Here is the input.
Amino acid sequence: MEFSAKQIAAYIQGEIVGDENATVHTFAKIEEGMPGAISFLSNPKYTPYIYESKASIILVNKDFVPEHEVKATLIKVDNAYDSLAKLLTLYEQSKPKLTGIDSLAYIAPTAKIGKNVYIAPFAYVGDHAEVGDNTSIHPHVTISAGTKIGNDCILYPNVTVYHDCRIGNRCILHAGCVIGADGFGFAPTPEGYEKIPQIGITILEDDVEVGANTCVDRATMGATIVHRGVKLDNLVQVAHNDEIGSHTVMAAQVGVAGSTKVGEWCMFGGQVGIAGHIHIGDRVVFGAQSGVPSSTKSDQRLIGTPPMEEKPYFKSQAIFRKLPDMYFELNALRKELNELKKQLNK
Here is the structure.
């Protein structure tokens, strides 16, 4: 399927610079642009590629002013990255949607299945489970007894949702993620560790996306809650009784210990570790590999272990690299000072 620059500009409310009849049928990164592809430029680091790219159409921000000739047709928009996302969403929605229940899937007689649902071979839907309208269940997905899945969800291969959990509408669960496994609860005894039964559930609200091999544990009692619009990357661990505020995003290998509350619109870089039983305010940003031992207030940008504001942190790191030289200089000054003391005492 081909689209012209004129059609694309009308859809994303852009301004055309060049041939409005230029057509595209695929997407490409700007450094890999090819005829018939649409690319985008939002990061200034990639600006040199725009003069070499063979892409037919390139999305750029309205403030972009070329320093050299650009062969591609440009479409100027308020935000090139956002406009690309809209086009990719349109492209994805235009793909044929799978429907129907395969004969090799197992569906318990007491389960409720909505309209236009796709259930692939070897998927399992347990007793009294519910699957909403237009939801896609891919091969080897396990939906345990009593679980409720909302409308327009996608569960990719090997997703496991434990019993009685709740998944909202328009959620995407990527391959191998586990929703509702037992929280890490053990009581030490003289004979070893006695398991504490985890009788709560896990709730994912609407528009949540969970990455591959990510785990969101069930609560000891009550519920572990991931609120609306949260996006979890691959290999993230959300422990029992956590509450993740709406629209918070976590990059790969973030770990949140149990009974912690995370505010809304937070951003955690890769490998951030959050201690248990603390509270993170709203709109808090943690840089990659930060270790967070205690509660933090809202509206902060922090990095390090324990975390501090960005500017002091980077100043401290600059000093840290000089510590060996400073150590030798300090020892040399001590020797000189001792020599001076000896001379003064004579």
